[in-house]
Fold these 2 entries.
Entry 1:
Amino acid sequence: MGSGKILVAQGGGPTAVINQSLVGVALEARRFRDVTRVYGALHGVRGIVDEEFVDLTRETSHNLELVAATPSSALGSTRDKPDDKYCAEIFNVLRAHEIEHFFYIGGNDSSDTVRIVSEQARAAGYPLRAIHIPKTIDNDLVGSDHTPGFPSAARFVAQAFAGANLDNAALPGVYVGVVMGRHAGFLTAAAALGKKFPDDGPHLVYLPERTFSIEAFLADVKAIHERHGRCVVAVSEGIHDASGKPIATLLAREVEKDAHGNVQLSGTGALADLLCDEIKAKLGIKRVRGDTFGYLQRSFIGCVSDVDQREAREVGEKAVQYAFWGDRDGSVAIRRTGFYSADYALLPLSDVAGKTRTMEDEFIAPSGTDVTDAFRLYLRPLLGSGMPDAFRLRCARVAKILKP
Amino acid sequence: MGSGKILVAQGGGPTAVINQSLVGVALEARRFRDVTRVYGALHGVRGIVDEEFVDLTRETSHNLELVAATPSSALGSTRDKPDDKYCAEIFNVLRAHEIEHFFYIGGNDSSDTVRIVSEQARAAGYPLRAIHIPKTIDNDLVGSDHTPGFPSAARFVAQAFAGANLDNAALPGVYVGVVMGRHAGFLTAAAALGKKFPDDGPHLVYLPERTFSIEAFLADVKAIHERHGRCVVAVSEGIHDASGKPIATLLAREVEKDAHGNVQLSGTGALADLLCDEIKAKLGIKRVRGDTFGYLQRSFIGCVSDVDQREAREVGEKAVQYAFWGDRDGSVAIRRTGFYSADYALLPLSDVAGKTRTMEDEFIAPSGTDVTDAFRLYLRPLLGSGMPDAFRLRCARVAKILKP
């Protein structure tokens, strides 16, 4: 063991439980006698190259617990994706500070960052142990049953659709809710868990795993509206046509891309408005409302899965254990071992980095606009305890007198 | 006392606690020996003219309690506003069913409906006791300290901004959240209760009580962004220019109006997108995101103020007591009697109907883009118990080595 200094950082989009993983690292690391300092880099890899570190060892464990329960990245995040030059800068800083253990909490892109840093360190002969700690509301990491952050976001989406369904039942019409998820439909599919009675919405769920056609969409909405007098629709922001072109880009608005080349889909209500305008124009339905859940679904304070909280904490703790008791770099993965129980494994970084999991076929109904019971069984335990429930009146109709 | 039949209905936009009032009426009414039947009209006044009644007396009290805790109007709602002809139809139905007590749970427009029905009944010599039970997330009824439904929606907005602020701190930029509220800014102002530390957002709050100017808005955002490196903005959907024209209608999109002549403002992300586009174009800030809270804020299941729940229940109970032990029609109002305690009063319908309360000047900071401590003191107890709290790291910076 060298200096005993470890570094932890958070990358990518924040989640409701990402600080559980941070605090899991910080508190578990201090149980190892070789650890002298736990540094946190501000705003991910950007904070490493800028030497923007805080000393988490100087935090009280009490405040760390309070921060753990607070959503969004307490250290700040970044969308930077290091290339070779960027990584060379990272090594210079790690060397200068004698840091030999690096923990990066993030999703797809962050796991790729860890892989590059790990490979560059090996090539440079620098003794770095680099561990990727999973986090993404998209649930799109391969090798994991699910990813920390997804269950809480899924809980928000399920609760939002449970409420939107009740609202739509009171004032009938068409309601379109647009949910985050570029390539993977898991979060959009979570809308189905907001449904209780057979005639409840969401009646239609559109996932990026299936090709989206405006014509088929309008026919589906028309059929549901004729049957129920109303229609609640869950749509992924990532829906695309047969050529793979996002439906959101069918609009005239300019397209914004991030450092990873991803088209910006969130933070605008354009897709919901486009779909609502189509329904009004082509189906002649008057009351059509669209909501884009946007950033609420990943950072809402006070809608968190307790299962998600404890697992996010554990992946942080396990990462430290793998780093100090193991002999290789890797990515921490969640495995399902019971209904419901989880355990953890360390996967090779190359098995996870840059790969995207999408919804398995067994989770998507043959219609393409609903989920299966397999998906409901998969997701329900992750949503945690205390899920609010919806009840309805079931009393008898009174006989009409004037117009019987 | 006549037939002993009473009728209750729900009008206008649903809230998270509107069924508490419904169940308050249903259960309290059965304690009066003269009451033989408690009917509920489906979809408000529309259900009365269509004779669409259910017999709430045939509900179990257990299920009524479960429905009370479920958001959105369990009987269904309507946007219909009865005129003279409509009211004549209502009387025919009430007469035919020998209903002599009418309770209507709703907001501004619903209180006006009760006033019309009450006056028409008196003119027609029909012995009707009509009581308006307050409900609106807009908090815009005159004569009440606040209205049931507002505290729970305010809690959602405060929690949403607390989370959005954390998200924006992690990935800095400009965030614009658009909140419901056509004429009254109370719900938008609730965003300020999501703020904890002095540099937290929302940094700017735009209310319909003040004239909105795009130029002043851009200057405000620029100043905050330069000071904090980020900016979180709360905007009411009802913001308007000096002529009173809604900013939302500056867009090319066609304008939809309801039966009350109100321009449709919710259910579209257009206003947020307009403001974000202006910020990107005029200020050159790259990361600009807009969310429109839409229907989530009034029907989200699982984000309810316990204070709101109990008051919504009590206005329903008090309405029945006023009806049977009082001698006049009226509108139930909430009065604040302590910090915090509430009591109830019955106001003349003409004091409430068709009038709109807006935010008092003492609640709005002189800058016009913030609330006062008087507003914070006003709102905080209404949000109820168990409000989630946000914590941050406060540990020491590590000295730089390479670039000290």
Entry 2:
Amino acid sequence: MTTEPHIASAFDRDLEAIQAMMLKMGGLVEAALLDAAQALETRDDDLAERVRRGDKAIDALEEQINIEAARLIALRAPTAGDLRTVLTVMKIAASLERCGDYAKNLAKRSSVLSQMSPISGSAGAIRRMAKAVEVLLRESLDSFVQRDARLAADVRLRDAEVDQMYNALFREFLTHMMEDPRNITACMHLHFIAKNIERVGDHATGIAEQVIYLVSGALPEEARPKDDRTSTALPPGAK
Amino acid sequence: MTTEPHIASAFDRDLEAIQAMMLKMGGLVEAALLDAAQALETRDDDLAERVRRGDKAIDALEEQINIEAARLIALRAPTAGDLRTVLTVMKIAASLERCGDYAKNLAKRSSVLSQMSPISGSAGAIRRMAKAVEVLLRESLDSFVQRDARLAADVRLRDAEVDQMYNALFREFLTHMMEDPRNITACMHLHFIAKNIERVGDHATGIAEQVIYLVSGALPEEARPKDDRTSTALPPGAK
């Protein structure tokens, strides 16, 4: 049984490597989200273009994680618990890849919006929302690294605040569109941007739930607090 | 080596079982999409409610697939090729779960839209789009079962047609909103519905790409034909 510790530490080393790739991916996604929101606010097309181009590196990291994770499973035949960790890393990487796409889409729409009349106050509100979501995403990854179910539960609760920010923006955009039809196209883009940032928040929550599952072996029992009510929204003023 | 065939067939049997669950999931998602589109067109709130409730069964199947797949990997220690198949089933199940969420969201918005004045022609156009996407989703799953890279490549190409249907609807909704601000809220919901159906099409494409990767060992080289140009859309009439 003298090889046992060697096999275990080889597994740990490989796991460390894919975790490090995942964290690098998380850092790139967080930066892309903040940069895209800044490009929107400052109407900086060059920065938007850099965010768009940068998505390739995020996609490449996900592919590399998938390859390394499959190799690790095949070579090391991990135990049930270790296997669950590896599969969780793959799931988190898939979430981050989607978040990167949302940031890229935000950057695309930012380049279009810089050609239109600005909608007063919207870019600042979107930047604040992007910042709040970036913090959630970062803390969801921290909770994974530290196997901290309490931090994960906290992320999960705070996503409702992001949903409220989105709801407020949704009503505001509707009002702008009704006031002046010339605002409609810009507001449609801004609305999609807000929705996509809200979706990044949902992914942060999803990552936090994976961490809770990994640490406790069970998904949180109560339904996730979900405060996006816009899918049932009636026109402003309707009862 | 007399146990070899036994081990192999136990793996095959387990794999068959999770594939069957995945196909059942696919059938539920296809039905949910078509039912939700029909509920929208016929303003059938009961049908919409059934779609919303039905999403739980789809989520439960994904969880079961994840558990069974992890168990299969841990118990059978599959070879690299077999492992890739199991991981692909997990990825496809995650895609189907997202598609189920989109159908549920469509059903939610359908219940809201039934309380508003209809936008002429929109529900029929959305039903046709849902039908086209349902066919793509079904064929992407068929291509997996039959390991048919040619069918998968065909699905991938035809997703551009769905993107074109979405583009046409996007322009139409913009026009309706500009013509009459009272249409704005309904058109926002319809627009989200169209976008979510288009995203189901993207998932069908993603599944097809997984199949091509599984069969050929390489992802398709040329970038996926992508024809959603609305993220760079300017107002109708703008140059």
